[in-house]
Amino acid sequence: MRKFIIKRLFYSVIIFFFVMLIIYALMRCLPTSYIESLARQRSMQPGSKSYEEWMAQLTSMYNMDKGILPGYLSWLKDFFRGNFGDSWYYTVPVVQKFHETIWLSFWMGLISMFFELVIAIPLGIVAATKQYSKTDYAVTIIALAGISLPTFFFASLLKLVFCVKLGWFDLGGLIGRNYQSLSAAGQLLDKAHHMVLPIVTLTVISVGSLMRYTRTNMLEVLNADYIRTARAKGLSENKVIYHHAFRNTLIPIVTIVGGSLPGLFSGALITETLYSIPGIGFVSYQSMTSGDIPFSMFYMVFLAILTLTGNLISDILYAVVDPRVRIA
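The structure corresponding to this sequence follows.
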């Protein structure tokens, strides 16, 4: 087991350096740049220098006058020193802006993932054990509806019903009008109240695929020979399903859960935009469209680390739920 983990860590480190190089090269090749916009704005001021002079000055100031490989090595040196620079677009340190927005998206993603697992896995198991029944058809319809509904349409539908028609929630934002006059507990409840619809949106649009995935894998396991043997021995149906079959169904489910780790921090761009939630998804989108290379680099590298960590966790969980992986 120790050799298995060390081997995976070694591969992850190598992949990480190549991924950072690719991300840096892509960031340097963005079609728009904040430096270009800033140079254009300053060159239009009365008595100012020309656009070319401003570009040369700003490019040298932000170390953009180097080639991709020398620039990458210079950025890598600063990265390991903990010097991530300032955001060009938000004019604050990258880490400060990241810290201001990441936890909101994290808690939204974590809560929606919890509800997704609690709803999708039991319904997928029930649908598989009652194949071709009314329950199975109902679960399948719900799953297909969740998969098919576009995020913007479902979010707009929820806002129309619960915000416009019923008036239970505000149309957008994270806090209400009287937020400042509330107590600490009241402010927490006010934020939680504004996050209900975004979390419902994230849960509904993601629960369908996991539900179908659980049902398909559960059906495959239930048709295996050892399940028929367990039933022939006289074991109860609950023990056959939840002790023998479900444990083997966990192996593919672990892949999805481990791969979902970056999603907890990446934010939900469409959902956050529609509900005016200042999360990391919307902030990173603004950074990329404005050519904010320092913030975009930090965010993309952070996601790369999370993706590699999620894959490593999946590999370790494989060995936990399936002894054959440890033997191999």
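The two ends are 10 Å apart (CA to CA).
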